Amino acid sequence: MGWIYLLGAGLLEIGWAIGLKYTQGFTRPMPTVLTVASMVFSLGLLGLALKTLPLGTAYAIWTGIGTVGTVILGILLFGEAATAFRLACVGLILAGIVGLKLATPA
């Protein structure tokens, strides 16, 4: 169950990272409320995941999911650069996430 919590936490991290862009410096009420709620639920799920998963692994995967998802959505939603080097670096982060999952028992 810890891995499911961790996946949810990572997806919510993507949500709040992207949400920060839409808050426009926390001046827009609805995006701000949704972003803060996503932050709270993301941390809550991470906390639940830490009951059964090693701290270093869970934290690295949580931030990795957030990083990869945010970069991809930044490209798709905001027209950020999608250079080969940038995408290769995202691939390395993704490989690290998969490697940590494979290296962690349970």
From TrEMBL:
Keywords: Cell membrane, Membrane, Transmembrane, Transmembrane helix, Transport. It is a multi-pass membrane protein. InterPro entries: EmrE-like (IPR037185), Small_drug/metabolite_transptr (IPR000390), Small_multidrug_res (IPR045324). PANTHER family: GUANIDINIUM EXPORTER, SMR FAMILY PROTON-DEPENDENT DRUG EFFLUX TRANSPORTER SUGE. This is Guanidinium exporter. The chain crosses the membrane at residues 33-50, 57-78, 84-103. The lineage of its organism: Bacteria, Pseudomonadati, Pseudomonadota, Alphaproteobacteria, Acetobacterales. It is found in: Cell membrane. Its main location: membrane. Belongs to the drug/metabolite transporter (DMT) superfamily. Small multidrug resistance (SMR) (TC 2.A.7.1) family. Gdx/SugE subfamily. The keyword Membrane applies. It comes from the Bacteria.
